[in-house]
Each structure stands twice: as structure tokens, then as C-alpha cells.
């Protein structure tokens, strides 16, 4: 997280005409004026520590005149919690619209006009408006805002799930003339991995002895696109063993002795030969739908896909499980 201040040097003159300096923190106030505050030390390590303390004190005291002031103070209060990076990304998109607005000027029409200004999917809009609403509620809870304006979120859209049936998938495999495209398609439905995870995967992520595929390579920090470690069935294990014997690189998916940055063209060509409208991400959806149709519990599907929130899994895929809520329905007899 980048602080809203920088370290500088503050030079002052003594009565005898000599000068001395110390580190200071430098920032701009809500009016854009440059401000400085001496830290009273010439030691860089000490200055860094003092700067954090002084800035925390100034942040707690600085007035929250605008929505931008409130949201940024709220984000500073998170202190590196898991969702902070994602919230800051949402705020970077929302700030041009909300940053200079004063809470007292916000009515329902302001938030209702935001989707037309932002021109993004409803789920993205909801995430960004939820951040603004959360920050306003945080300020009110801390008695730094008297009245919380109403922030109206657009309704949750019904999620469409583009996926392939098993018959369609077999047609797709028949249309895969290149071995690397066929292996990618098979991995897509047997691991539920995203395109980027599969194209970046190396052979050291495949545990042939235990039949496991760690989709998160060593050194990659998990983020909102969580990558799971998934078991491999015999069908894909056999395909991987054959591919490993012919491998020329460290990458699971390779072509002409090189890793691939994208597989969009090869996949599109295979789909065209199979007379299908399909794209690579449909393999992940297909994996989830097939599991749901086979009555796999939502919690297991969520773990397989790397979902941290099972409600997301249930909202998208529960409709494909013929037994989902069946027990609840059976209790409604008289």
C-alpha cells in the first residue's frame, strides 16, 4: 500500500545564520496545498517509523469533507487486510465520479446515475458502490459523519453460464487437430482451471504419484483469482503422462518447443471445426456444471474452482444440481 505522503527534508536557519535539516513528511491537503511536518530526526529508519505514526495521527484528525476523503481514510484504516488491494482497485475506478462530491449533496439519483457513467457490468458497479457505501457507514460509526447518504446498488443480474455438454465437448476434442489444443481442452474440464493458470503451469506443479495438480505455481501470491490444488482422474493423468514424455519445455502446454501466451486462435479453430460457439473460459464453467449435474455438493465444487465464497458457487451453479434444495422441498408436505 502506498502512503498518501512522502518523506522530504526540511531545512531551517538558526539565529547565528547556520542551517540545519531534518526529515519531514510532505502531503497535500484537500485543497491541494502542499503541507509539511518535521520529524525532528536525520536518521532514515527512525524517520520512516515516525512518519507512519505522525501520518496515522494526522489521518485520524484530518477533516473528512468529501467522499474521497472518507473513502481514502477508510482504506488507510484497513492496514493491509486481505481485501484492501481489491478495494483500492475499485476506488481507483470510482474516484473520478465520487472523489470530490460532498456527502450532503448525494441523493439517490447520484448513485443511480453512476452505472451510466461507468459503463461496466452490474457486478463491477455493485462492487464499487458497495465500497463507497461501506466507507460512508464506517465514517458514521466513528462519528465523523452525521448523516449517511443513500447509495443504491443496481440489482444483481441473473448469471448466464455458457458451457458445453459432454457430447459437445467430445465434438470439440474431435475438432482439435493440434495436440496442445486438445490437452488444454482436457485440462480445462478436468481441473476447472482458468486459461492463464493452465498456460502458465509447469510440470513441477503436477504430482503424478499422488494424482494432484497445484494450479498455483511457486512464488505466485494468491489473490482474488484463487488457484486450487485439484485431484486428477485417470483419464487426464494418462494424457499428461503422454504429454510429459514428448515435452520439450518446462511448461505443460507448449507448441513448437515454446510456451504459449494465448490459445485463443487454436481453440477458436477447433470450435469452428466442431460447429460450436465456444471460448476457453467455457471449459471452467463446463467443469462446474458437470459436477453439479452429478450431484457433487456445492462446497466441493467451490473448493475445486478456488471459490472462497460458497454463495458465489451456489448462485451460479446450484440450478444445475437436480437435488439442490430437494430436501427442503420434501419438508413442505402436509
TrEMBL record:
Belongs to the 'phage' integrase family. It comes from the Bacteria. CDD domains: INT_Rci_Hp1_C. The keyword Transport does not apply. Keywords: DNA integration, DNA recombination, DNA-binding. The keyword DNA-binding applies. Residues 65-140 form the Core-binding (CB) domain. InterPro entries: CB, DNA_brk_join_enz, Integrase-like_cat_sf, Integrase_catalytic, Phage_Integrase. This is Site-specific integrase. Pfam families: Phage_integrase (PF00589). It comes from Qipengyuania qiaonensis. Residues 159-330 form the Tyr recombinase domain.
